[in-house]
Every structure is written in C-alpha cells, then in structure tokens.
Amino acid sequence: MLEIKAEKRIEKGKSFSRRLRINNKFPGVLYGVNKNIMLLTLDHNIIFNLQKKIEFYKENLFLLVENHKYIVKVQAVQRHPFKLKLLHIDFLYI
Hints:
Elements: E1 2-8, H1 14-22, E2 25-31, E3 38-43, H2 44-50, H3 55-58, E4 61-65, E5 68-79, E6 86-93
Parallel strand pairs: 1-4, 2-6
Antiparallel strand pairs: 1-3, 2-3, 4-5, 5-6
C-alpha cells in the first residue's frame, strides 16, 4: 500500500487555500459515514507524483496524520483546467 503524509489544518476558505498553493501545498479532506471530517494539508509534488500510479486510485492507501494511520481511498481529485496542478483531494475512510 502507498503511504501519504498529511497535516491537520484548522483554517479553511478561498484565501487560505490560495496561500497553501503558493507554498506548494494544497488542501484536502478526509470523511466517511458516521466519522468526523478532518481537514488536511498535503504536499503537492509528492501527491502529484503518486497520482500517476494506478494503485493510487484503485487500492487502499495509508494516510499518516499526526502519528495516526488511517486506511483510506481516493474519492475525488480536483485539477487545474490547464496547468499540471492539483487543487483539492477528497479521501474516504475505509
């Protein structure tokens, strides 16, 4: 299984997301049925390189957030319309 490191974030909104993207990071979210929603910050280059692999979309992933391991699946990925950039990613608890 692929392993992804993420950080929890508290702030949200358009201006905060823009500041993240300027610093080569981007926002994400982890959610599931009867689970708490967790807002995440991810490193763009690492995820961009991982998402080129088929396993990224088809298999379960390990998501490391503050020394806790979650088993997740990629639910949705938002990409920039013409730049090779990821804008947002949704993970689903397994």
